[in-house]
Design brief:
The protein is of the alpha+beta class. It has 18 helices and 19 strands. Strands 1, 2, 3, 4, 5, 8, 9, 10 and 11 form a 9-stranded antiparallel beta sheet that branches. The chain has an 8-stranded antiparallel β-barrel with strand order 12-13-14-15-16-17-18-19. Helix 13 packs antiparallel against helix 14.
Length: 589
């Protein structure tokens, strides 16, 4: 028993015995006995009594509402409804009376079987698939079974029982059935009342399948008599299923039938011809092209105006007259609207031209802005970044950044300048080979060629070999004023070379009368009379301190012959390389 039921029983028991004052110890004690017997808590009996009273009042309220609902239902069932249609049974499937279907003013549906007055509430109409039943007979068989155990074979024959199997396949057809109350009915056909037929005269289902004046809707086919004869003769399930399927209609039509009757049950009927005519007349009053076109469309659909009990011919004549008048008004309105449209276009043409010009100007401005950003702002910002790299001495990075600018401003020049400055920095770091390679790539840019000549003279020739001093001095003189060339030319060795240029006679030699001649290219000859003893070129040691006489004696192989010891404007002292003999010359011119 629920707690609420116990509380109601407790309250009824207490009030029936007069235990209503829980402040009275005697009444409270007796109430506790009742509560204890019902399994209710007794430690707070006064609150329990209040709770039981509330439960009792709620229960009384519920019973009162149920009674009101029951009386309302009884009252409702007494109300008669409007008859909608009569369902004819399929007597070949199920026996029983036909069913009349009614709808009350509140929309509820009830059915009354033929020959009865009982109202059976609700009706549901639905469809079911038709299936073909294929029955296969399996006759009895004599089968031998046996087994060998421990070398002993045992077995025997037995006969199986015959049996049948069935398979079902959907045929694509179906039937329509109705369910009312706890009963079901196979629907063979439905006969509509005159009011229902008139209300649904314009329903799409009716227009598709029936002609005007109909009242009966078939939900079953006639059936194939040959199939019926075969079913009766063989009495096989497959034959009977074939016959019953021949009495079905396509499932697509079943669906449409079900939808149609559900619309009838819900009173979801299309507007009547009278309502459609009133709608068309109201649209005509609006006098707009859209409304006139809608009105004409409606008038065309009700040219065969139907109204039970009305003067249909007169109304149809009125409709045809309205069609003619509406068509004329529509033509006038269309012509007027076309003229207004032309006037509007002509009035708006200057505005459109101005708007077009504005759009073109705006588009040009936008394109210009985009071009400005793409071809100036962005490259200019990248140019500044490259300039920062250049100013910070990051020449390789700046060269790459300027190269990517693809000719923006003087970026092509700055690429060369970055490489130029990088080559200079390599020269300062004495990375001569890499510096020379870059200067060669730069060609005639700035002093690139001078840098190449400078490195050829000061590095390749002065530091890496014993160069001929004459050509070296002359070529360095051409670079005078470049880098530290003047400092190099001011070295003692070059001062001595300049002093040595001229003609000198040996002194202190009794046997040989040598005459030494040195020209501006550093080429020398030492003759004794007309006979040349030595000839060659003056060379400079790698340390740039000593001048050597490099050549050959008579026709021997060239070699280092002498080295200078001291030179001034009047006297030249030189010796063999091993200092074994010293010669002194005085300048004669």
């Amino acid at each position: 028993m629920k707690k609420s039921e116990k509380l109601v029983l407790f309250y009824n028991s207490c009030t029936s015995k007069g235990y209503t004052d829980m402040t009275d110890e005697t009444q409270a004690l007796k109430a506790k006995v009742i509560a204890n017997d019902l399994g209710l808590p007794i430690n707070n009996i006064d609150k329990l009594f209040i709770s039981s009273k509330e439960a009792y009042e709620q229960e009384q309220k519920r019973l009162h509402e149920e009674e009101e609902q029951r009386q309302e239902k009884i009252k409702k069932l007494k109300v008669d409804g409007e008859k909608l249609f009569t369902i004819k049974r399929d007597l070949k499937v199920d026996g029983g009376p036909n069913v009349d279907v009614f709808r009350r003013p509140d929309g509820s549906i009830y059915c009354i079987e033929e020959g009865s007055e009982e109202k059976i509430e609700r009706l549901r109409i639905d469809k079911t698939n038709s299936v073909f039943v294929n029955t296969k007979y399996h006759p009895s068989q004599t089968v031998y079974t046996g087994a060998t155990v421990g070398g002993i074979h045992m077995g025997g024959f037995h006969t199986t029982e015959a049996y049948t199997t069935q398979t079902t396949t959907s045929t694509g057809n179906g039937t329509v059935f109705g369910t009312y109350g706890s009963k079901s009915i196979q629907i063979a056909s439905v006969i509509l009342t005159a009011d229902t037929a008139e209300a649904f005269a314009r329903d799409p289902y009716i227009i598709k399948y029936f002609s005007p004046g109909w009242t009966k809707i078939g939900c079953k086919a006639a059936g194939n008599k040959a199939m019926l004869d075969a079913a009766i003769a063989t009495n096989q399930m497959s034959a009977w299923s074939s016959y019953f399927d021949s009495r079905c209609i396509p499932m697509s039509q079943c669906k449409e039938v079900v939808r149609f009757f559900n619309r009838i049950l819900k009173n979801d009927c299309p507007p009547t011809d009278r309502e459609r005519l009133a709608e068309a007349e109201e649209l005509i009053k609006n006098d707009s092209v859209d409304d006139l076109e809608k009105a004409l469309k409606i008038l065309y659909t009700i040219e065969d105006y139907r109204e039970r009990g009305g003067d249909e011919d007169a109304v149809r004549a009125h409709i045809r007259k309205l069609e003619v008048e509406t068509r004329k008004r529509l033509d006038v309105r269309i012509q007027h609207e076309k003229e207004q449209e032309i006037l509007k276009k002509e009035a708006e043409r200057p505005k459109k031209i101005a708007k077009t010009i504005i759009c073109i100007i705006a588009s040009i401005a936008i394109i210009a802005a985009i071009l400005f950003i793409v071809f100036y702002l962005v490259p200019n910002n990248n140019y500044k970044n490259a300039q920062v790299l250049f100013n910070n001495g990051e020449y390789t990075k700046s060269a790459d950044a300027f190269f990517k600018l693809d000719g923006f401003k003087d970026s092509e020049v700055m690429v060369k300048e970055s490489n130029y400055q990088y080559a200079v920095s390599l020269l300062e770091k004495e990375e001569y080979e890499n510096a020379k390679k870059i200067f060669e790539e730069l060609g005639d840019y700035k002093d690139s060629e001078k840098f190449i000549s400078y490195m050829d003279l000061t590095v390749d020739r002065m530091k890496n070999s014993n160069p001929y001093i004459g050509p070296l001095y002359n070529e360095l003189s051409e670079l005078s004023g470049f880098l530290d060339v003047d400092e190099i030319l001011d070295r003692e060795c070059f001062k001595q070379f300049k002093t040595m240029i001229g003609t000198w006679n040996v002194v202190g030699e009794s046997y040989h009368k040598y005459k030494l001649t040195i020209d501006e290219n550093g080429e020398f000859t030492i003759k004794d009379g007309d006979k040349t003893h030595y000839s060659g070129y003056l060379t400079l040691t790698k340390d740039g301190e000593t001048i050597y006489f490099y050549g050959k004696q008579f026709s021997f192989k060239p070699e280092y012959l002498f080295k200078t010891k001291s030179v001034d404007s009047e006297k030249l002292t030189m010796s063999f390389l091993d200092n074994s003999h010293t010669y002194t010359y005085v300048k004669i011119k």
